TrEMBL record:
The chain crosses the membrane at residues 153-173, 216-233, 279-297, 317-336, 348-373, 393-412, 424-449, 469-493, 538-560, 580-602. SUPFAM superfamilies: alpha/beta-Hydrolases. Residues 15-25 have a biased composition (Polar residues). It comes from Streptomyces javensis. This is Integral membrane protein. InterPro entries: AB_hydrolase_fold. Keywords: Membrane, Transmembrane, Transmembrane helix.
């Protein structure tokens, strides 16, 4: 990205034509010289509009309104495009340009949709949904400027919750491979007899693999491969999506002090290489140690029985000591260091990231050898010893989340504001992450147990059964779904009431029009449904609270009774017994069905644009944030997109000296704001910000108040030269910014009319659509507001010599 226009390579347009290479043979120095020559008589440099699309993505042809487009800079993942006729627009005066850009700024489109969508294999990222949700909890803390110790404690607790989720996932894989398959099914003649692929493990064949320890050692390959896959995906996605160092520049003495500026201004905010590498090593080591514990605990239990081998018992105790030491080391690595944002931290703790997973893998290898040691008298019966680990994980997660809630309340009391759930949004989301993790782990275990048992209810009778806690958790799912249904009914009634209240007011926006009852109801219903976004806390809060409550009750019941709900209810009144049996059977199916639906819908979401838009905003909000808590979360696209936009704004303004409007729709407006925060003070003087359909305040400002709260958005308003925000009442995602400041020009324009025409008019002979979240550029107000922003930017003089500009940017290019 050191040059703006690539000289040799021909570029293909959207219509199949090729832009001749002769159009792109200028070096940056030559381009600046030609631009100055074209602007004879001291004419000002050209203006640029940089468009950034939103959720779901689009094509450069649609963004630029021209079938002939060509990439200016970038690659197949993310790139900046122009109309083919505008490739050399800076070298020509405006009157020589063609098309819609002739009387306005040159238009460029930054296309980043391949960062979050693409081939259907990326649908498997949704299986990492619990990790992504846990990572979100890190960024949802309430703002607090003078409680740094509480902020650090909050971040530490989130990282520990994220660690327990990794352990839970690997423990779920161990449950399927080690307990259900290798221990219970392979150890039972009835179960293994009907499955040819398990025949060589059956004790009936008296083969080498028939001993329980050797069966467990072989089955450990599956969770070990899963751990290795998670490490590989985390490492590969970092290199592909996030390894974009930000633009390094000399310190600007005229800029405000860094300590008083929002976190998104900090130079290291979008480059978390060190923390991700450390967490990746810790979570990978935790996965290997979890598998080693699954092998060692049942083996040492047998070796401690009377008549066991003293040598084997000693080896078991040594392995347990190594496991404890490894667990302490992993927790210490997670606790020791958080994110470093005040500078670009490109260093790596190479000893930690290499030695920690390597040592854990060595402990796993020793555990495999220890479990494979000959024990002729060992017979596998009932469930695998050590299943109490699921209860321990659940109790640990609950304790960490309750402590998180205490920290969040302390922070919220120190700086109360418009924060959902009284500052408890982060802990609530952490509860949901743990619940999703339990559904994934438990759903797979329940379905495998049901399949291996030939259709019998898991836990009922002598057949194959998962841990008792997973069955209790499955039983709680129907009750939780019933609560969701009740909430859905409540919000449906609320939409209906709001729609009826809006009906008399709709015609106020269309004076002189003839009323149409159907049209009026449709507009009012659209506005009422759009308002549901603001009610999201009333869904997240109750669901999170009940998930935590049901989880605590399930852990208590499993610990006290040590029986599945159907068995525990024996002897109770008939209605109670029937309800327990029904909930257990239904919950078992629902837990397995939830896993299958997640995979199915994930693939559909990446094949169907409509499904992609349905979950797009939630997914793009989740993957916007860096992986600060969980290294196995899906990659953060903003760590590529924000440096891309920053580089483009800095290099273009330095090269050509013109005014620039960065124009962002929906999620693109969040990227645009983040990029404006990252450019230097000189560049911000040439940049205007235009946002439309923006969730900056409606979603980000409320759910992430420490980063997009009123103070931060007011700071952005003060630092950027000018900013306008377009919004509609019918938009379910975007909304007004509502800055708490009465000085200076307003950021928000009046709500745009939607639809543009109520009935048929000479300008709209066919019924105008209700646009909602899309097509803001179709509104006449868009061009008017963009022109107003350019008018408020001061006229620029021709840029300095290209050699001087290149010298100013040299440090940035060297860092890339």
């Amino acid at each position: 990205m050191g040059t703006i226009l690539e000289p040799e390579r021909p570029h293909h347009t959207g219509s199949g034509d090729t832009v001749p290479s002769t159009m792109r043979t200028d070096t940056p120095a030559d381009a600046s010289e030609h631009a100055r020559t074209a602007r004879k008589g001291g004419a000002p440099p050209p203006d640029l509009e940089l468009l950034v699309h939103g959720v779901g993505g689009t094509t450069p042809e649609e963004m630029l309104g021209d079938p002939r487009t060509s990439p200016v800079t970038g690659d197949e993942t993310a790139a900046v495009y122009r109309r083919a006729d505008d490739i050399d627009a800076e070298q020509r005066p405006p009157e020589d340009r063609e098309g819609p850009d002739r009387d306005g700024p040159i238009r460029e489109a930054y296309v980043w949709c391949n960062l979050t969508s693409g081939n259907s294999s990326r649908a498997l990222w949704l299986l990492l949904l619990p990790f992504m949700v846990a990572n979100l909890a890190h960024w949802m803390r309430p703002p607090a400027d003078r409680r740094e110790r509480t902020v650090r404690t909050y971040g530490l607790l989130v990282r520990l919750v994220a660690l327990t989720l990794s352990v839970l996932l690997i423990a779920g894989a161990c449950e399927v491979a080690l307990d259900l398959v290798a221990w219970q099914c392979a150890g039972s003649a009835d179960c293994a007899g009907g499955k040819s692929w398990l025949g060589f493990l059956s004790p009936e064949n008296h083969g080498w693999w028939s001993q329980p320890g050797r069966r467990l050692a072989l089955a450990a390959v599956l969770p070990g491969a899963l751990t290795g896959l998670l490490w590989y995906l985390s490492n590969r996605t970092w290199s592909a999506y996030e390894a974009s160092p930000p633009l390094e520049r000399p310190v600007d003495e005229s800029a405000p002090e860094a300590g008083n500026r929002p976190a998104l201004c900090l130079p290291g905010f979008w480059y978390g290489r060190r923390i991700v590498a450390r967490l990746r090593a810790a979570h990978t080591a935790a996965g290997f140690l979890t598998i080693a514990a699954g092998l060692t605990l049942p083996t040492t239990t047998y070796d401690r029985e009377p008549g066991g081998s003293g040598l084997q018992d000693t080896a078991g105790w040594a392995l347990l000591t190594l496991l404890c030491a490894g667990a302490v080391t992993v927790v210490a690595v997670v606790c020791y260091r958080g994110r470093s944002e005040s500078k670009v931290d490109g260093e790596l703790d190479r000893i930690t990231i290499t030695a920690l997973p390597g040592a854990a893998l060595a402990v796993l290898a020793l555990s495999v050898l220890y479990a494979g040691w000959s024990r002729p008298g060992w017979v596998s019966t009932h469930q695998l010893p050590g299943n109490e680990a699921f209860c321990a994980i659940a109790i640990g997660e609950g304790a960490l989340i309750v402590t998180m809630a205490v920290c969040a309340l302390v922070l919220h009391r120190a700086a109360p504001g418009r924060t959902p759930l009284y500052g408890l949004a982060g802990p609530a989301v952490a509860v949901l992450a743990c619940g999703l993790g339990a559904v994934l782990a438990g759903g797979v275990a329940q379905r495998f147990a049901d399949w291996l048992d030939g259709g019998g209810t898991p836990g009922e009778g002598p057949g194959i059964a998962p841990p008792v806690l997973l069955t209790w958790l499955a039983t709680a799912i129907p009750a939780l779904l019933l609560v969701l249904v009740v909430l859905l009914v409540i919000f449906t009634v609320r939409v209906w009431r709001v729609r009826n209240r809006l009906l008399p007011t709709i015609m106020d926006g269309y004076p002189g029009e003839r009323p149409d009852a159907v049209r009026t109801r449709r507009i009012a219903a659209t506005i009422a449904r759009a308002g549901l976004t603001d009610s999201a806390p009333w869904i997240v809060g109750p669901v999170a609270f009940l998930t935590l409550l049901f989880g605590a009750l399930c852990v208590t019941a499993a610990w006290v009774t040590d029986e599945v709900p159907g068995r525990a209810a024996d002897g109770a009144p008939g209605a109670v017994d029937a309800a327990a049996q029904t909930a257990q059977a239904l919950g078992s199916w629902l837990m397995g069905l939830a896993f299958l639906m997640l995979v199915t819908f994930a693939r559909r979401a990446y094949r169907s644009p409509s499904a992609r838009r349905t979950i797009g905003i939630l997914w793009d909000v989740g993957t916007f944030w860096p992986r600060a808590a969980h290294p196995f979360a899906p990659p953060c696209y903003a760590e590529r997109a924000v440096p891309d936009l920053t580089w483009r704004m800095e290099t273009w303004t330095r090269e050509h000296g013109g005014r620039l409007v960065i124009s962002g729709h929906s999620q693109g407006s969040v990227l645009a704001a983040a990029a404006v925060w990252q450019v230097d003070h000189r560049t911000r003087g040439q940049v205007a910000l235009l946002t439309y359909g923006s969730p900056l305040e409606r979603l980000y400002g409320r759910w992430f108040p420490a980063y997009f709260g009123p103070t931060q958005l007011l700071s952005l308003h003060g630092e950027v030269r000018c900013w306008r925000n377009l919004w509609r009442y019918t938009d379910p995602i975007g909304g007004p910014i509502k800055l708490p400041d009465g000085s200076g020009p307003e950021v928000d324009c009046d709500a745009l009319k939607d639809p543009l025409a109520y009935g048929r008019t000479p300008e709209h002979p066919l019924p105008a659509p209700i646009l909602g979240h899309g097509d803001y550029q179709a509104d006449p107000a868009f061009d008017r507001e963009r022109a107003g922003l350019l008018a408020r930017l001061p006229e620029q003089t021709p840029p300095p010599a290209a050699e001087e500009a290149a010298g100013q940017m040299s440090s940035g290019r060297s860092s890339g």
